[in-house]
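Aim 2 progress. For Amino acid permease, the working sequence is reproduced below.
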Amino acid sequence: MKSKDQQLLEDKKHLNRYGYAQELLRDMGGFSNFAISFSIISILTGAVSLYGHGLTYGGPGMMGFGWTIVAFFVMLVAASLSELASAIPTAGALYHWAAALKGTRIGWYTAWINLIGQIGIVAGIDYSVALFADPLLAGIFNYQSTDTTTLIVFGVVLLLHGILNHIGIKIVAKLNDFSAWYHMAVVAILVVSLAFFTKLGLQPIDYLFHVGQTFSDKPYFLAFLIGLLQAQWTFTGYDASAHTIEETVHPRVRAPWGIFNSVAFSFVFGFIMLAFVTLSIHDANGAVNSDNAFIFVISKALGGTFGNIVLWLVTFAMFFCGLSSITSFSRMMYAFSRDNGMPLSRHWAEISRKFRTPAKAIWLAVILSFILALIDYITKLVNPDAGYSTIAFLTAVSVVGLYVAYGIPIYLKLRAESKGLFLPKHYGPWALGKWSKPINVISLIWIVFICIIMVIPPNQMAAYALIGMFVVLVIMDLSYYKKHFKGPQAALEKSVDEIRRLEDEFEHGRE
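Predicted structure tokens for this construct:
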């Protein structure tokens, strides 16, 4: 059993082999690494904020079947990413894996696509906080909740998350640890409350798996597919365990387990929660026609005061989720910027001397996320009859951006294996063995499928936003990439085989 100091030295040397110095404070344990991804997934954010979306399109069967189907395929994607995190343990994660497996250009595109997804997920999570907090605050302070007041609350939440992340990784890690336990506790409170105190009792269990009912104008099969956004957006952001890998002790084992376990635990706890919430519905039509379906269901089931207490508990869980998402986003920008991948990279790669956090990257993450929601706000002022919701727009952008970024290194790993460039010896201690290739292939098929589903009407605005961002990306490729980006330091002049050769030398030397 290694001491912590011995493990830290080994982790530092592994990182040095990839051309990077240990700048970030490496102080996160296995549970903290798991907790940040579990908190970003946050079943009390995605499944709750898009509960009305899922119910509207897929009916109650969305909660029983839709959640389970999505969770199964996402666990395969998570397992595929876990392998890569174990093999190449750097904070650049997705983009660094892509660059090491194929080349700097594909790595650069992966990074920017991931950044687009990260902007969407931070904006989506903190906007979810605002969607719940604003009407609750309106009830306390006696004002009318509007799109404008929601945007203001959203800005305040982002500001608080920026301040907490700026202060340091230690406090964020502790809050993430607390957040994981808090999520489990709130789910337990919600489930017990609905099981024993629901005013009209629970529906029969088969109601949870009732299919064929949709409250949209779409045919049920298509409506069900559109409703999958609820579950699919919930299961995003678990690459956070990889983005904080340089702050994790024994990362080649703990980070992969953090990625995979965060999805697995979220599936179980989320299914239990959704089951009881759905079984407490006695007016589905009223729920889908309300301003917030989840608030409607809980208020009807538990009553005013008790229902509000539960809703505040859920809102605080969302707050912790947003805190973790800023952490992940800022680390990704920091890692990309230290390789000069962004304009003004020297600022975003700068580490605060006092707090040892990428302070400027943290505040850039806050600003970009606010701008995305602000653009949507202005668009709706110009076109008040827009047939989509802000939360659906933000979440679809994040799903497509993140999952395309997830898929690129998985595909490149399969490609490298087929050419004999990525061999069994290149895997880390966390690997899928003979199941690796079929799991990778199924993961890619699911990613392609779900990205198409996420941008079809009524969510075509997400497609337009993504197309616009991609056009900007191509312009930046022509104007910035060729002049400034030389690639990850490890991928610049070293192939995957060379990287592994250096690691083997280190291992033999240590023995």
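The two ends are 14 Å apart (CA to CA). This observation will guide construct design in the next reporting period.
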